[in-house]
Amino acid sequence: MKKNILFLCTGNSCRSQMAEGWMRQLHGEEYNVYSAGIETHGLNPVAVQVMAESGIDISHQKSVLASDYKDIDFDVVITVCGHADENCPVYLGKTNKIHHGFDDPPRLAREIEGEEEKKELFRRVRDEIRDYLKDFSL
Hints:
Elements: E1 3-9, H1 15-27, E2 31-37, H2 45-53, E3 76-79, H3 82-86, E4 96-99, H4 105-109, H5 115-133
Parallel strand pairs: 1-2, 1-3, 3-4
Helix pairs in contact: 1-5, 2-5
Keywords: Arsenical resistance
InterPro entries: Ptyr_pPase (IPR023485), Ptyr_pPase_sf (IPR036196)
Protein name: Arsenate reductase ArsC
């Protein structure tokens, strides 16, 4: 039986979306994979682009609130940013909460002028998420 896993961040626009895409690609046969946010900021188009560069299409994913999944019993919730970790909704029962923070590419990109340099930030975080998840198991 597949385990339910949720990736949680502030706006469910970038890091949690990339984590959902990688987890489906790497371990989709083992987990039902979801992502959500404390808020919803919409799917980040640069995150979609850099994931597509790795052969993963996340363009069909939606930015949703954690409360949208209130009826799902999660085996694990992984917070991918400090704000989500500090404000994570309470999950009762057998839910295991793990925090593994990643830099926020959209926030860091605000200080960079060149588009290619901005994409490099997204690629770095994309690859860090992949490396974290490639050997993941519960």
